[in-house]
Amino acid sequence: MPASQRQKLVDQFQSDSAIRVAILSITAAGTGLTLTAATTVVIAELHWTAAALLQCEGRAHRISQTSVVNIVY
Questions:
Q1: Which stretch of DSSP H or E encloses residue 51?
Q2: Contact 27, 55 (CB under 8 A)
Q3: Which of 14, 30, 49, 50 allows an S-S link to 55, with CB 3.0 to 4.6 Å?
Q4: Is the Cβ–Cβ distance between 4 and 11 less than 8 Å?
Q5: Sequence-ordered list of residues with C-beta below 8 angstroms from that of 26, at least 6 positions apart, any chain
Q6: Do residues 60 and 41 make contact, with C-beta atoms less than 8 angstroms apart?
Q7: Is the whole model's pTM more than 0.90, yes or no?
């Protein structure tokens, strides 16, 4: 997916409370996205490096996050 289209979808997730789920791969969700609208992150695939998983968690735990975020593996 082109980066411009991906960012448009992320912006919709961030701003539209009717959008409740984003399904992303670890490689897509690991870098360059801000997903602070998330309150639960379910990681259903495991990467061979822990750093990649931590990057995915970090997309929801950004400086602007004001809610508790549950991370489930």
A1: helix 50-60
A2: no
A3: 30
A4: no
A5: 43, 45, 47, 52, 53, 56
A6: yes
A7: no
